[in-house]
From TrEMBL:
It comes from Flagellimonas halotolerans. It comes from the Bacteria. CDD domains: MiaE (cd07910). PANTHER family: TRNA 2-(METHYLSULFANYL)-N(6)-ISOPENTENYLADENOSINE(37) HYDROXYLASE, TRNA-(MS[2]IO[6]A)-HYDROXYLASE. InterPro entries: Ferritin-like, Ferritin-like_SF, tRNA-Hydrxlase_MiaE. This is tRNA-(Ms[2]io[6]A)-hydroxylase.
Amino acid sequence: MLGLKLPTDPRWVNIVEKNIEEILTDHAYCEQKAASTAISLIIGFPEKSELVKEMTALAREEMGHFNMVHDKIVKRGWVLGRERKDEYVIELMKFFPKGGSRETHLVHKLLYAALIEARSCERFRLLSEEIADEELSEFYRNLMVSEANHYTMFLKFARKYGKKGEVDQKWEALLEYEAQLMKDLGKKGTMHG
């Protein structure tokens, strides 16, 4: 369904279980960055009324998710740690060349966002099925559904604002590139890397 070329190794959950505090902090910042991405799309492309409407709703939803993750951290007696660099996103964002038209830039931003949401959805599914912590298992099962909706929304907008055939070719190439990234980064105790 998600089109990912390399699934997450199920043993990644073992790494997560040894680092719950770290993964929850990383996850909280992922939600905050997703809200920031939605806001940056509004600022960058205010003339796209349908996109602005959807991104406004998405920013609210992602900050709601941030709050939910933060509540989990506090409930366990921890505090939100400092933000860390997201190597996965940094490397992913190197795929498309810089420059080009505003429309091309928009399509690339939408494809990056779609892929990040797809990987999040896949990892949330894995956590919901494999993590021993029942509270977190249920939490990630619920989040998985909204992440799948986000992935399809971003892909839909990319196809709307770009040429469908060209967008689909870029999407396939980005998926292949991401699979190579995951070979190196996919074993870390972070949400994506």
